[in-house]
């Protein structure tokens, strides 16, 4: 497989993951962190890191909007729930220091 095709396939898989996460607003970021070790914010940070490495202009807000499909503050108001005591305890165990 040539590098261009590989990049196109990886980009398509990333776009599909983003779309999937946009549709699964019931899945909270803390759930993703506790189970998979990453969340939507991580993806947006990785996107910004990639932009920075390429010298492409992208703000943190722009990278979050690219992942969430809307401004982050709007997503939080619409979909983010308060973390339960159990979720927070799991976070402490799985990710000490977060």
| Architecture per CATH nomenclature, i.e. the level-2 architecture | Orthogonal Bundle
User: What helical percentage do the residues reach?
Assistant: over 70%
Q: What is the CATH top level name?
A: Mainly Alpha
- The first-to-last residue Cα distance is 39 Å
What's the β-strand tally?
A: 0
Report the sheet with the most strands, covering strand number, pairing sense and barrel closure. Answer: none
Overall form = globular
User: How many helices in DSSP terms?
Assistant: 6
The mean pLDDT is 96
Domain tally: 1
Low-confidence stretches: none
Topology-level CATH name: SMc04008-like fold
- Measured by DSSP, the beta-strand proportion falls in under 5%
Coarse structural class:
mainly alpha
CATH superfamily: SMc04008-like
Radius of gyration: 15 Å
Q: SSE string, helix = H, strand = E?
A: HHHHHH
Write up what this structure looks like.
- Helices cover 72% and strands 0% of the residues.
- By secondary structure, it is mainly alpha-helical.
- It has a single domain, classed as SMc04008-like (SMc04008-like fold, Orthogonal Bundle), CATH 1.10.3340.10.
- Helix 3 (40-54) crosses helix 4 (60-68).
- The protein is globular, with a radius of gyration of 15 Å.
